[in-house]
Automatic annotation (TrEMBL):
<dbReference type="GO" id="GO:0051117">
    <property type="term" value="F:ATPase binding"/>
</dbReference>
<keyword id="KW-0813">Transport</keyword>
<feature type="transmembrane region" description="Helical">
    <location>
        <begin position="559"/>
        <end position="576"/>
    </location>
</feature>
<keyword id="KW-1133">Transmembrane helix</keyword>
<dbReference type="GO" id="GO:0046961">
    <property type="term" value="F:proton-transporting ATPase activity, rotational mechanism"/>
</dbReference>
<comment type="function">
    <text>Essential component of the vacuolar proton pump (V-ATPase), a multimeric enzyme that catalyzes the translocation of protons across the membranes. Required for assembly and activity of the V-ATPase.</text>
</comment>
<dbReference type="InterPro" id="IPR002490">
    <property type="entry name" value="V-ATPase_116kDa_su"/>
</dbReference>
<keyword id="KW-0406">Ion transport</keyword>
<feature type="transmembrane region" description="Helical">
    <location>
        <begin position="663"/>
        <end position="682"/>
    </location>
</feature>
<dbReference type="GO" id="GO:0000220">
    <property type="term" value="C:vacuolar proton-transporting V-type ATPase, V0 domain"/>
</dbReference>
<feature type="region of interest" description="Disordered">
    <location>
        <begin position="702"/>
        <end position="726"/>
    </location>
</feature>
<keyword id="KW-0472">Membrane</keyword>
<feature type="coiled-coil region">
    <location>
        <begin position="51"/>
        <end position="128"/>
    </location>
</feature>
<keyword id="KW-0375">Hydrogen ion transport</keyword>
<dbReference type="Pfam" id="PF01496">
    <property type="entry name" value="V_ATPase_I"/>
</dbReference>
<feature type="transmembrane region" description="Helical">
    <location>
        <begin position="588"/>
        <end position="611"/>
    </location>
</feature>
<dbReference type="GO" id="GO:0007035">
    <property type="term" value="P:vacuolar acidification"/>
</dbReference>
Length: 860
């Protein structure tokens, strides 16, 4: 079979590259993406490999590019992404790239430092401006404090003015001047108060005020005023709210203490002249400097913006180039050097069909490098298990991902993905059958397919959207198949389509139909035309409220078992392809044949009974082949397995559906029972016999004497036999494993058949939910009349549409998807699929760049 049904044939090759051509050749292989290199230096530390310095240089360039990217995103500058992938630069171009990135980084850092210094100066001048404005108000209010107090009354008034009350305890007060201050404050002497002014963060102000009160014992006077507009922190650009404060005190000791407290609370102190004229002069100078700083800051920001805009045009291409260089040198570190230090030796897995393409790429790399020595690609013989490589395209990629999520296929094992393309959406549609809901899903998938280029170029980090977009072809097929099964069920938003006209006719008058809830139409009379509805279910069942569910239950339950048994038989047949391909004769005879017989004689016979019952029994047939004499399939199957004789379903009815049924059923059960010991013991016994025969054949090969026989036997056992037993399991383990597999298959055949009843259960639940939404939501709006009814219908329809999409399409669709996934992973793939392989991971620039971009997005 082709690679669609099995993984690609792989070859282990040895590659010899000239040192000067190695970089260009590996670059060409990276663009090709068809070679998986092996590490030939597993014991060598990553920091001791040949090209570790080049990898470090690439890491440093990536760091500089990430710094540029961070600054560009901070300014909101769009980065040009042409979608093209530039070629990996030559090694000599690394120096130019490093110089360019170094120049850009240094220039940007210098601009940022200058801008930060200017912003810091601007912040200081702005704070000083607010201090000069606010403190003028404070000094105007404190005029009585700076003059001499000549009377006792004014002295008491002055002392009361300098008192400071604690907000926490209003009864506790202290005077600004102590006893020494009072004694010193004699007539004819001026009282000299010192002060400091500054700015503090508004959130620290209450704690700052309490600390001043407690540390200075109330002998200071604090005034503060808020700065209305926030100030920008030059370090991180945050907006900070601050307040201006001024503290009056007396004495150098209090001055020292106040300054230490200000320093502890990170308050900024500024010089503030005492004279009003000096303050006005300083304020004018500050305003002039602020205007000059605004001009310089604007020019600095413009220069920074120009630098970032120029860098943004090339940043994506620079990232691609650096990551390609880094990937090449990282791959070259996996190679070995020969003794002459002039040739690099590599080992790699390559697809057998692509060896010529790889050789052409190597020749292109050699020509680019100007080397005269051609590369050598030799195929090696190996007993290692090759990696599994399944070629995919944008259509099959999602289906292959579903299979690989269960486990990567063993090398050259049958690949279930091609069959899953049909069976997965079909089994989903059996559970999700509704023409309307399927159309919504199909249109959503079709929209993503039509817009896939634009949507793929957006490269969003939204994980849920990426899952939907990656499975767009699965969603589209699930929607299309659901539309088909919806037509079969004749179900569209819980209603039916009368396309061809019903094949049932009413023989009652109108009043009887409206007033009698228990009317029945008999297929044995003229009520039924005798031919079924051309496609799907007859729309008459939509109005059969009493027995609609009964009829649909029987129909959907039977088709679930039919599809399930056919699906499992197909899985067992797939195992035949594996056994014949790998020439596993024992598994073919002692596993495949009894497994298929067991499944066919029991469960496929059950399916045949359904078709026989549908074909032989009808309401229009003569007795005893009428519907009243139709036996129960389930009871018949249980009696068959228990070797019980069936009972007639009614008086004078036939016990069996066809002649010889009892005999055939007994034979089938005996065959099924005989298959169990064959599956259980056949393969282990044959393996044991083969090993015993192999041990006996060793004896004649040895020498004639007993000593020689003993010596040769021991030697052979340690050399050949020991290797065999090392690879093979012990016989006890083989018997145990075979027993487990047999029990699992026999019991699993029953449980897996019952598991397919989920097709019936979810289909029934989906149909009933749709009917509930129609009858309890939308029908309320349809029953209203007039213009108010139109408004009410619009609101109700919007509510019904949201519930339909949210519950019936999304939630029910996800539930049906998971159940379908389980049917494929457990019921289908367990019959033939081992999934013990490991994926082929070629050296590909596209994969490396995609993963690098994703990793950069996550770190941010």
């Amino acid at each position: 079979m082709g690679s669609l049904f099995r993984s690609e044939e792989m070859a282990l090759c040895q590659l010899f590259l000239q040192s000067e051509a190695a970089y260009a050749c590996v670059s060409e292989l990276g663009e090709l993406g068809l070679v998986q290199f092996r590490d030939l230096n597993p014991d060598v530390n990553a920091f001791q490999r040949k090209f570790v310095n080049e990898v470090r240089r690439c890491d440093e360039m990536e760091r500089k590019l990430r710094y540029l990217e961070k600054e560009i995103k901070k300014d909101g500058i769009p980065m040009l992404d042409t979608g093209e992938s530039p070629e990996a630069p030559q090694p000599r171009e690394m120096i130019d790239l490093e110089a360019t990135f170094e120049k850009l980084e240094n220039e940007l850092r210098e601009v940022n430092q200058n801008a930060e210094a200017l912003k810091r100066n601007f912040l200081e001048l702005t704070e000083l401006k607010h201090i000069l404005r606010k403190t003028q108000v404070f000094f105007d209010e404190s005029v009585p404090m700076v003059y001499k107090s000549t009377s006792t009354h004014s002295s008491n008034k002055y002392r009361r003015y300098l008192q400071m009350a604690d907000n926490q305890n209003e009864d506790e007060q202290a005077q600004l001047l102590g006893e020494e201050g009072v004694r010193a404050n004699q007539p004819g002497q001026n009282l000299k108060l010192g002060f400091v002014a500054g700015v503090i963060s508004r959130e620290k102000l209450p704690a700052f005020e309490r600390m001043l009160w407690r540390a200075c014992r109330g002998n200071v006077f604090l005034r503060q005023a808020m700065i209305e507009s926030p100030l920008e922190d030059p370090t991180n650009g945050d907006q900070v709210y601050k307040s201006v404060f001024i503290i009056f005190f007396q004495g150098d000791q209090l001055k020292t203490r106040v300054k230490k407290i200000c320093e502890g609370f990170r308050a900024t102190l500024y010089p503030c002249p005492e004279a009003p004229a000096d303050r006005r002069e300083m304020a004018m100078g500050v305003m002039t400097r602020i205007e000059d700083l605004n001009t310089v800051l604007g020019q600095t920001q413009d220069h920074r913006h120009r630098v970032l805009v120029a860098a943004a045009k090339n940043l994506k291409n620079w990232f691609v180039k650096v990551r390609k260089i880094k990937a090449i040198y990282h791959t070259l570190n996996l190679f070995n050097l020969d003794v002459t230090q002039k040739c690099l030796i590599a080992e790699c897995w390559v697809p057998l069909l692509d060896i010529e393409t790889i050789q052409l790429a190597l020749r292109r790399g050699t020509e680019r490098s100007g080397s005269s020595v051609p590369p050598i690609l030799n195929r090696m013989q190996t007993f290692e298990n090759p990696p599994t490589y399944n070629r995919t395209n944008k259509f099959t990629k999602a289906f292959q991902a579903l299979i690989d999520a269960y486990g990567v296929a063993s090398y050259r094992e049958m690949n279930p993905a091609p069959y899953t393309i049909i069976t997965f959406p079909f089994l989903f549609a059996v559970m999700f059958g509704d023409l309307g809901h399927g159309a919504i899903m199909a249109l959503f998938g079709l929209w993503m397919i039509r817009k896939e280029k634009g949507l793929a170029a957006q490269k969003t980090d939204n994980e849920i959207w990426n899952i939907f977009f990656g499975g767009r072809y699965i969603i589209f097929l699930m929607g299309v198949f659901s539309m088909y099964t919806g037509l079969i069920y004749n179900d569209i938003f819980s209603k039916s389509l009368n396309i061809f006209g019903s094949h049932w006719h009413l023989s009652y008058n109108k009043s009887t139909v409206w007033n009698n809830n228990y009317l029945q139409l008999s297929p044995a009379t003229s009520d039924y035309e005798g031919t079924p509805y051309p496609f799907g279910m007859d729309p008459i069942w939509q109005v059969a409220s009493s027995n609609k569910i009964v009829f649909q239950n029987a129909y959907k339950m039977k088709i679930s078992i039919i599809f399930g048994v056919l699906h499992m038989i197909f899985g067992v047949i797939m195992s035949w392809h594996n056994h014949t391909y790998f020439r596993n004769r024992l598994s073919l005879i002692y596993e495949f044949i009894p497994q298929l017989l067991f499944l066919v004689v029991l469960f496929f016979y059950l399916v045949l009974l359904m078709f026989i019952k549908w074909n032989r029994y009808s309401a229009k047939n003569d007795f005893p082949m009428t519907e009243a004499c139709a036996p129960s399939i389930l009871i018949t199957f249980i009696d068959m397995v228990l070797f019980k004789s069936s009972k007639a379903p009614g008086k004078d009815c036939n016990v069996h559906m066809f002649a010889g049924q009892s005999f055939f059923q007994t034979i089938f059960v005996l065959i099924a029972l005989a298959c169990i010991p064959v599956m259980l013991l056949g393969k282990p016994i044959k393996i044991m016999q083969a090993r015993k025969l192999a041990n006996e054949e060793v004896q004649p090969i040895t020498g004639s004497s007993d000593a020689e026989v003993g010596g040769m036997s021991n030697g052979g056992g340690s050399h050949g036999g020991g290797g065999e037993h090392h690879d093979e399991e012990e016989m006890s383990e083989i018997f145990i494993h075979q027993g487990i597999h047999t029990i699992e298959y026999v019991l699993g055949s029953v449980s897996h058949t019952a598991s397919y009843l989920r097709l019936w259960a979810l289909s029934l639940a989906h149909a009933q939910l749709a009917e509930v939404l129609w009858s309890m939501v939308l029908s309320l709006g349809l029953n209203k009349e007039g213009w108010l009814g139109g408004i009410f219908l619009t609101v109700v329809f919007a509510f019904w549409a949201v519930l339909t999409v949210g519950i019936l399409v999304l939630m029910e669709g996800l539930s049906a998807f998971l159940h379908t996934l389980r049917l494929h992973w457990v019921e289908f793939q367990s019959k033939f699929y081992m999934g013990h392989g490991y994926a082929f991971q070629p050296f590909s620039f596209d994969t490396i760049i995609e993963n690098g971009t994703a990793a950069t997005g996550e770190t941010e």
